[in-house]
Amino acid sequence: MAKVFPNGWRQLKPDISLVNEMETLSLLEKELDDTYSVYHGVHWTNIEKHNYAIYGEIDFAVVGPSGKVLLIEQKNGTLIETDDGLQKKYSDNVKKIPFQIARNADGLQNRLKKSIKDHSIYVDSLLYCPDHKIKKIGSSGIDPDRIVDWNRKDQLVSIIKKILPASEVNSLLRDELHQFLSDVLELVPEVNAIVGQTGRLYTKVSGGLSDWAQKIEFSPFRLRVIGTAGSGKTQLALSAFRESIKLGRKPLYICYNRSLADHISGIVPEGGEVSGYHQFGDRIAKLQGTPIDFKKPQPFLQMEKVLDSYVPTQNQMFDDLIVDEGQDFKNTWSENLMRLLRSNSKVWWLEDPLQNIYSRDPISFENWVTIRSDANYRSPKSILYAINEILHLSPAITAASPIEGGEVELLEYTNESDLVTKTIQAIDRAVQIGFDKKLISLLTFRGREKSLFTPFTQIGSHTLRAPIKDAFDDAGNQQFTDGEITTDSVHRFKGQSCPCVILTEIDFEELTENVKSRIFVGATRATIKLILVVSSSSLIKLLK
Which of 141, 377, 382, 413 could form a disulfide with 98 if both were Cys (CB 3.0 to 4.6 A apart)? Predict the structure, then answer.
């Protein structure tokens, strides 16, 4: 039997969209001997229909005894035969199969050449379309010897053996290929190709909170949701906002983090209002004819005072209130927000005590219904396992995502010069793995004011997209430097996420609750990969 990686695929319960590929995988395992290795992408994205691959859009990679690699692209159903070659129609577009296969093969070969320098790399491709009989195989745009259609599907294994003969053996090359492909599988196939899939998967599996939370009926509707990072709180907030609009009501979504508010405002329908708390105070100040002067001391305190005394008219009130990041709110703020509501209003208060990085006192809610969710659907299992271990969380956060994720990496620094070096190494590592620089966020544990990296516009060979201090456009939106890698503080990035997060400048005297909160918030921003850059003294405290 062939060696199949990763294992455990037989325990999956695939939907109908994966049945054909699982059958192919079973056939390859059974009919090829143990000098062949089969790598597949069915293992982690099985929940998401049609979205799985080990590299780009490649379904299977077979490594023969000699170390030659054969990529198998499986196309189920009917194909379209055109003068430009074979095509496959999907719900939203049409893909040219020859171009798709050639692009993926070239891309993988180039990455292999960069990673494996002491061997000649041979990558071949094969199209497997078991449901389609190609009429004009000569005009398919693919070498006829590299097509296994309905006519030849019983010959699939024999054709693979012909392309990858057992006459030659190169164990060293096979070992290096295994290391490369295993790393790819552990993290994610072609990182940039599946980032969107990961987001859709999170949205899909985390939607349960919004589904059942909205089915609860009571009056007055005052619901407090205590949910860990990645539990689906923001999905619930979006769902509640859209439902309010649908019913002809006027909702207010409000949070602490301006960046989160800006993100939410771009994806909700018109008819309500989305704002950060201080941003809302700034709007009211302008409405009252006394705009906030940001050049004077403590402008945010001035915004708070505006809302402390604000009494809205009936037309200025809202039907529904959705508070996100509730753990960051002061008691007086909650009182101010409740004054904005009309009768028969609904209030959703969403919070996570583990993300209380400002050390706020908890707000008391009398006669509110409370629900809790300790399941994180966003972060890979590897990240949550590491967080639970180093932060000694009790109760532990439940890893509910089907994604295993790559290993959490720790880089130790001894001084500030070494800090810069190790941070550059972390970025280089992320790029080497396959992350596009725009999918990497560099977050500082210290905060923007104290961070060594705040003045930086470049680190190593990497340009930084950093918030410019006191630089806002006419609408009050933060301005950023031109760069590829986003850099920010844990505080400002809270409520957001990124495929690859590098949390740097982790340095503390004692592992206090506030320190735990900051590490927790920073680490749970990562949806695929997490790298921690930690001082020597702090690393000892984390690992003891």
Answer: 141
